[in-house]
């Protein structure tokens, strides 16, 4: 698990960014190509989801070493990936956060990241 926490500045900058670049670590420790995704904040945590659920290519990559690297809002950071999919209260708050932050894209597009399948792939980004 994480031994450090996000600074207030990092939390704010990443949460306010429209997109986040995430690269997971392969078994040999090298980084995969980065994937662009949406990110939301809940309290002191930052979260991402796969629109394809647990079968999404980038999500499966996060399950190899549970580590990677992110870039968003001018913050570049090594992270660990924590499974946050089993907390129904958290998932409801994250659904609301996604709808609020990305509403300009319309319900159909936002619906892909608040679907039942997407919720199963909720990852908490933990700084390393």
SSE blueprint and pairings:
Layout: H1 8-16, E1 20-24, E2 35-37, E3 40-42, E4 45-48, H2 57-65, E5 67-72, E6 75-83, H3 88-102, H4 107-111, H5 116-119, E7 123-127
Antiparallel strand pairs: 1-2, 1-5, 3-4, 4-7, 5-6, 6-7
General description of the model:
The protein is of the alpha+beta class. The protein has one domain: Electron Transport, Fmn-binding Protein, Chain A (Pnp Oxidase, Chain A, Roll), CATH 2.30.110.10. Helices cover 33% and strands 27% of the residues. The protein has five helices and seven strands; from the N terminus they run αββββαββαααβ. The protein has a seven-stranded antiparallel β-sheet. β3 and β4 form a beta hairpin. The model has no long low-confidence stretch (mean pLDDT 95).
List keywords for this structure.
single chain, 128 residues, alpha+beta, Pnp Oxidase, Chain A, seven-stranded antiparallel sheet, 5 helices, 7 strands, globular
Give a brief description.
With 128 residues, this protein is of the alpha+beta class. It contains five helices and seven strands, in the order αββββαββαααβ. The chain is globular.
Strands side by side in the biggest sheet: 2-1-5-6-7-4-3
Find the count of extended strands (DSSP E, 2+ residues): 7
User: Could you say which overall geometry the principal axes of the C-alpha atoms support?
Assistant: globular
* Overall CATH architecture: Roll
Q: What is the average of the pLDDT values?
A: 95
Q: Can you write the helix and strand succession as a string?
A: HEEEEHEEHHHE
User: Count the helices. How many?
Assistant: 5
CATH topology: Pnp Oxidase, Chain A
Helicity range: 25-40%
- In what range is the share of β-strand residues? 25-35%
> What would you give as the CATH superfamily?
Electron Transport, Fmn-binding Protein, Chain A
Structural class: alpha+beta
Number of domains: 1
Enumerate the spans where pLDDT stays under 50 for 5 or more consecutive residues.
Answer: none
Whole-number radius of gyration?
A: 13 Å
Specify the CATH class.
Mainly Beta
How far the N terminus sits from the C terminus, by CA atoms, comes to: 9 Å
Let me know the largest β-sheet: 7 strands, antiparallel
């Amino acid at each position: 698990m994480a031994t450090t926490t996000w600074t207030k500045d990092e939390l704010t900058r990443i949460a306010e960014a429209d997109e986040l670049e995430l690269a997971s670590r392969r078994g040999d420790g090298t980084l995969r190509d980065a994937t662009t995704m949406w990110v939301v904040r809940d309290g002191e945590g930052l979260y991402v989801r796969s629109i394809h659920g647990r079968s999404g290519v980038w999500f499966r990559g996060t399950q190899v070493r549970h580590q990677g690297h992110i870039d968003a809002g001018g913050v570049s950071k090594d992270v660990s990936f924590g499974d946050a999919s089993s907390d129904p209260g958290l998932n409801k708050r994250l659904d609301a956060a996604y709808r609020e932050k990305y509403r300009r894209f319309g319900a159909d597009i936002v619906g892909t990241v608040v679907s039942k399948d997407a919720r199963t792939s909720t990852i908490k980004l933990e700084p390393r």
